Amino acid sequence: MKQVSITHSRKVELLEKPEPEIQAPDDVKIKVSYAGVCFDDLPFFERSDEMLAWGPILYPTGHEMSGTVVECGTEAKALGFSEGDRVSGYAWQPCGHCFYCLSGKEAHCLNLRMTEGAMSEYIVWKARQLIHLPKSVPMKAGCLTDPIGYALHGMDRASIKMGDKAMVIGATVPGLLILQLVKMQGATCITVIDSTEANRDLARRFGAEYIIDPSKQNIAAEANGITNYLGYDVIFETSGNIKMLRLSSKLLAREGTIAFSSVYGLNTDIPITTSELYLKEATLKPFYMAPYMLPRIREIMPRLDLEPIISKIFSLNDAQEAFEATETGFYPKVLIEFAGE
């Protein structure tokens, strides 16, 4: 089988590998239809110093996929999986028995590991890592399982309430999903900041009431006008731009919450003073990885407008171009097609 692998800095190759086989009763073998290129894959693609600081290179790579079950173990069958099922899931496998797993915080598992990377023609994952895709969700959109869980976790962390004024900085995949979720939650003054016209158009489609182009508009002036100088109750910073995190504290309402979802550099200090948080009694909440989210993802998927987020699809032979396209930042979600629908 063919497997997409990062072999050198900014170099992706197709390697021939033996097909993986089921080894345990809860294993599920999947023929991958599509795999997503995540912005989190780029540090590994670019061989950045920060990637090296995280630890081993992801090899093979990829953690977003959709596909069809071709074989499953007896335990997986007992859990409802069978040949021909359309599935998606999480590449991350918590141990299930450490302190954090037993405390319901599996995202912080002390033994968390990535199972077989998603960018292979065939993969074997555990049944507990998978969900059945709803009938109304096409295979392409099924690749968004991981970012949907991420967005749901961000919503939980922010504790947004009906009537809260909400801002999303960065029409990234998590940003566009959070935009749809805050609208469902009854947020008001929903504002999106993004410098790319195509991303702003998507934000309008998904229900943003106000759009700010930071290259042409004064963000603070626009935000003050929208909120009548009161600021936003919840600001989601999903752009990964440290300057926008700094700006967030200026746009925040009293007792507001900033939820952010980027490392911004392993040695980067948060550019928000304690006095800013103190005087506003504000809350700063990172959101990292979604715990126990798969059932909720499956339920919310049909209610989200997912297909427009898929902005570019490359063939398996063009995997290098898929990574390069993601690197430009112009496309919210790039997919690599393995077997299609």
Automatic annotation (TrEMBL):
Residues covered by the Enoyl reductase (ER) domain: 7-336
Keyword field contains Metal-binding: yes
Keywords per UniProt: Metal-binding, Oxidoreductase, Zinc
Enzyme class: oxidoreductase
Similarity comment: Belongs to the zinc-containing alcohol dehydrogenase family.
Enzyme Commission number(s): 1.1.1.4
Cofactors, names only: Zn(2+)
Record flagged with keyword Magnesium: no
GO MF terms held by the record: (R,R)-butanediol dehydrogenase activity; zinc ion binding
SUPFAM superfamilies, alphabetized: GroES-like (SSF50129), NAD(P)-binding Rossmann-fold domains (SSF51735)
Entry protein name: 2,3-butanediol dehydrogenase, R-alcohol forming, (R)-and (S)-acetoin-specific
Stretches assigned to coiled coil: none
Organism: Christensenella hongkongensis
InterPro entries: ADH-like_C, ADH-like_N, ADH_Zn_CS, ER, GroES-like_sf, NAD(P)-bd_dom_sf, Zn_alcohol_dh
